[in-house]
Amino acid sequence: MLSLSTRAKEAIKTGLAVTIVYWVALSFDWLNPHWAVIAVAMVSLPTAGQSLNKGVLRLLGTIIGAAAALLFLALFPQERWAFMACVSVYVGACTYLMTGRKRQYFWQVSGFVCLIVAVAGAGSEAPFTQAAVRVLETGLGIVVYTLVSIFLWPQTSASALQGVSRELMSTQRKLLNVILNPTADGEEKGILGGLSAQQIQLIGRLEQVLQAAASERYEIQQARQLWERLLHLSTELMEAFDGWREGLQDTQSIDLRKSIPNLDKIGALLDRRFKQIDATLEGTTPYAAPTAIEVTVDEAKLSGRSHLERAAVFADKTRLERVDRLTRSLLDCVADLQDFGSRTVPHDSEPAARSEWAVDPDRIQAVVMVMASFWIGFVLWVYVNPPGHAGFVTLVPTVAMAIAITPQLKASSLLYAFAFGSILAGIVYVLIMPHLSGFLELGLMIFCVWFLIYFVFWKPQQIVTRLGCAVAIVVMVKIESEQTYSFAGYANSVAFILLGTVLLIACTYIPVSPRPEKAFLRLLARYFRGCELVVSSMAYEAPLPDVGTAPWNVTYHRRGIMELPRKLAVWSRFLDYRVLPGTAADHVQKLVVSLQGLAYRLKEAIEVRNLQESSLLRIELADELHDWRVGIEETFHRLVENVDGLSPSETRQRLETTLASLEERINESLEVHKGSITNRDVATFYDILGAYRGVSHAIIDCVGHADSIDWGKWQEPRF
After folding, report:
1. Model's pTM, two decimal places?
2. DSSP state at residue 83
3. Are 572 and 439 in a shared domain?
4. Are residues 332 and 298 in the same domain?
């Protein structure tokens, strides 16, 4: 029996779906059958759930976008500039919304469908028919591909959901074991970075698989709240591990087994809990309610240690208690998923994060780029009228919206994709189609062409080439019920595609350069600027504003310092190190990891800053805390101005001197007020001191990694 590869199966499914779509559209003599074909190309994903989920978003976006276009046509039937202004504002709003986290594809489709229907309807006597056909043919493409993917070699996401969850739990278990092993050698500690990166990837995969699986199976949709809770708890655990990993250097000179006598027992209990989570996910073990783990610190073993070292031990105690709380919640959650639990909200759940709103510069840049492509295309259409005509107002902004979602994508790569697609379209349109008669021959040709495209360019990283070829074929061949052939029309289409791509490449430089190294530098400067502002908001002279009352810039930067390291990690994968001599990929990766660690240490500092510590200690140490904060602000300010403007040795010496001065002042204060300060006050202050020490060491780590990179080459202009 012939065994086909997954690559061949997916190509056959896409080719078959496109052929069926053309047959239905041509049989009913519908306008623009290529709209249905493009819908197939966009929703063809590996699993039925992913395709269905994306298809539903595309259909809803098409309906909303078409309705918006009809509204604008009704409001401004004879006012060209007002009409185009409203359409551009709507497209800009959709661009801003689609670059957020929720319903990205819905807003993207809503934006470009409004644009296409509005422009097509403005030159038509029946704009409603144009809109209705667009919705109808989009639905046709989605339904056909969904049915093909369900009945022909179906692949589901439901089976992968449990597998990804178990793999994530296994990775977090390995991370915990390495972190809790005080005797781990350098090689074992070195795998922490790889495990952390794998953890981030698995959390992203779990989110995608959950979304697709919920579209496939009713029982997963019913339990979606529990799966989302598992995702949330895993993310919280990831943050705890990352902050802990960056804080390992704080306790290098301390024997934690002596300071925390039951550390080995705690490690064994947590390891056993992760095993129970895995077994519960698999459904092979009965559920046993977890009990809290008591973490004790032997303060007698810390006698003679500095207050900073004591603070580091108490910080580890706090982290252990947090991991204990999160893993208990995880076990409760997976038990409810497997019907071992009571399906109630876990009693020790983390408080839900309050939503924050702030203007995101990256999203504003995307809006400016898309709207610039729209207006430049409109001016060219009206005053120059190049080949393609209205296509400059529709195709160029549509592709610009796709680039806005993935700004790392090089617009120049589309030039090669469209060029290859144009050549293939020319062969089909000029040499093959004129010799065909009847849909049987035409359908066979359609199937072979689409099979070839999806079989050759099947890798995920080839999606740009695959979609570029598909769009070129659809636009240039333009299969209709009454087929006509014109080499001049084909040549004009080629010229339009190439000119439009050149225009698109130029527009990607509006308002800033899209080169990865320039984007990396901008994000890095914004990160340090955010750190500076966040540290300044921690001043003890004034109350620390909470999330709901903080100024918008503080709100934005608090969120930004947590998100920017992930954006920097994405951009780092697209850097061309051939034009950046003096820069190694591992140096950039280590810098990004250290930035993520600094973000978590700042988050800890903000959290402990809210603690009501002893007013006596705060008054006694006000000057030292102020000096520490001002010194940190100055460090971040210098990093904003010039990322390589700090010497690692000078920075280390300055921050260590500040910490030593703070510790000396603490000793004096505790000696003078020995009888008036409670143990709880001292413990709370240790938490604050440990967080501040962690921030200082994280900054030293960042400056050291930044110094290993030749930033001068990054700042050189390139075209």
Report:
1. 0.82
2. H
3. no
4. yes
